[in-house]
Amino acid sequence: MLKECASLANSGYDVHLVIADNQGDEVIHGVQVHGLQRHHTRFLRMLLDPLRILRSALFVNASIYHFHDGELMFVGLFLRLAGKKVIYDVHDDLAKQILGKHYIAPTLRAFLARLTMWTESFTCKRFSGIVTAVSFMNDRFSGYNPRVVTVHNYPLLSEMDYHDQSLRERGVICYVGGITRIRGILETIKALEHIEAKMLLCGRFEPPELENVARSMPGWEKIDFLGFLGREEVGKVMSRASIGLLNLHPYANHIDSVPIKMMEYLGAGLPIVASNFPHWQELLGPLDCAVFVDPTNPMEIANAMQTLINDPVRCREMGERGKQAVMSKFNWQNEYGKLLALYRELENK
Q: Are residues 34 and 14 in contact, defined by beta-carbon separation less than 8 angstroms?
């Protein structure tokens, strides 16, 4: 989100970011950030935060509004009815995502997923444009709106400056991101029991009590848990590691995704042990920069990691191929032009 804002600001736009982050107002990379207080409970955030965001957005009085959070669809609709140009930026398939939410009762998930699809259908027909983060969603949203563009959330080439290859440590694996059951944390810890390795784990446990389960497992002794880190600190973690792990379970919202962490690992020069999703194999297989595994099989994960640890030359060569792919193709500089073209088109209407 800030990546898009900063890029637009660099292109000469007066950009304001309204966000409920408890951080207050500040200017970051030329972007005026309006930081609102965030409610502590999920129910109040869903109920009241959109109203506060709408009030602040109206105060800004922008000519184009661009929102990412599916909970703000009706905020976007209100702005559209007020005569504003509105872009909905779809980073996740919300309906599929709901099916994997642990905090929603299983009996409600299917109903809420269908309701979400209906809401998207109703609102997206009225928006000025749709941005999707992965191309597989284009077919669906093109049925709602004639102006749909895919802008992949690839890393900035400038973020390569965070990586110092001289810090690389053999036998060190890293995982960066949300730490949940469906992102494979428990299978990962079980896999660590069977190999000689150390894992740098960065992120937040969700739900928080999952951390107690993880710490009770024998493989936890091989984990250095670093918590939530900023961009520069994450870059240093990736510099120390020799392998990146992306062991997501085969949930609907994962199978067709292109996680930003996948490209960030590659940009850091790390070979990846990744879930054996067909889409991922099609994307990365020709580059020979990843080993694909059954994400629910700890022994298969362990064998893949140990094989790479035992062959540092292969590790280095795979990492270099991945890094070159990011430098030439999978980067934000290549994607931003499509977003800028959409803004120019809306300006001229």
A: no
